[in-house]
Amino acid sequence: MNVLTTIEENYQQLSMSQQKVAYVIIQHLDEITLLSAKKIGEKANVSEATVLRLAKILGYPNFKEFQRDLQASLLKERTLRRMNAIKQNDEASWLQSHYDSEIENLTATKLSNQEKEITDVAKSIMNASHIYLAGWRMGLSLTSPFSYILKIMYGAVTQIPQGEIAEYSTHFSNKDILIISAFPRYCTETKKVVETAKKQGVTIIVFTDSPLSPFVPLATTSLFAKTVSNSFLDSYTAPVAIMNAIIYRISQLDYNRIQKNLTKMEQQWKYMNIEYNEK
C-alpha cells in the first residue's frame, strides 16, 4: 500500500480534523515518520484519537502499521521528491539559494550549542583503545575523512567495510569507541553494528539529524547536525563542521601526543618523498 497515494485518494472524505493530520503528514513527512500518534496530533492541533482514527480509516489495523508504511514511503520516495522539487525550481539565483541553504544548516547546528558534547567526544576518542567508524553510502562523506584524520592523529583507527560488519564487530571491546554516521535514510546495517557494539560495552558516538533518530537511544553521545539541501541528496556540510570541531578540540586537549605523532608522520612523508616538488 502506498500510504501517500491512499491519503490523497481519500482526502475529501475525511473529517476536517483528519484532513489536518493528513496535510501535516504530506507536508512534513521527513519529520512525521518518527513521531508518536500523540506528537503528530499536537503538530496538527488535534487529539491523539484523531490520528488513530485516520490510520483505521486508511485501512491500517493499528498506528504502528500506519507508521511503518509512512517510513517506507519516506525511504522510497525521498530522493525522487527532492528531484521533482529541483525541476520545479527554475529561479535564476539557484547558486545563491544553494549557499543560503548551507549557511542555514551551519547556523542551526551552531545554535544547538553542543560544546559539552563535542568535548566529551574528544575525550572519549583520546582515551579509546581502538577507534572504529561506520557509515556508508553518503555517510562516507563524514566517516571517510574522519577515519583518515584520526589515523594520522592516533593510528589505531578502522573504517569498517560495509560487507564485513560481522568480522570487525567480533573484535569490539569495552575500551573501544564506535563513531557512526546515521542520517536518513537510516541504515539497518549501521543499526546492527551499533546494537552489537552496545552489547559489548563500546562507547558509541552518533552523528544524526534529530533527537527522534532511532540511533539516539543506543548512543553514549549524540551529535545533531542539520542536513537540509536544495538538491536530491542531503548536505553533509554541518556534520563535517562538527567533525572539524572535534579534531580541533582533540588538538587542544591532547596537544603533546598529537604533535609527537604529526612530527613522526612528517618525517615519514619526507622519507617516502610523498610531497610533490616541481624541479
TrEMBL record:
Q: Does the keyword tRNA-binding apply?
A: no
Chain ranges of the SIS domain: 121-256
Where in the sequence is the signal peptide annotated?
none
Q: Does the keyword Transcription apply?
A: yes
Q: Which CDD domains match?
A: SIS_RpiR (cd05013)
- Which key words tag this protein in UniProt? DNA-binding, Transcription, Transcription regulation
Q: Fetch the Gene3D superfamilies from UniProt.
A: Glucose-6-phosphate isomerase like protein, domain 1, Winged helix-like DNA-binding domain superfamily/Winged helix DNA-binding domain
* InterPro entries hit by this protein: Homeodomain-like_sf (IPR009057), HTH_RpiR (IPR000281), RpiR-like (IPR047640), RpiR-like_SIS (IPR035472), SIS_dom (IPR001347), SIS_dom_sf (IPR046348), WH-like_DNA-bd_sf (IPR036388)
Q: Which GO terms describe its molecular function?
A: carbohydrate derivative binding; DNA binding; DNA-binding transcription factor activity
A Gene Ontology biological process noted in the UniProt record is: carbohydrate derivative metabolic process
Where do the HTH rpiR-type domain residues begin and end?
A: 1-77
Query: What is the recorded name of this protein?
Result: Transcriptional regulator
**To which species is this protein native?**
Pontibacillus litoralis JSM 072002
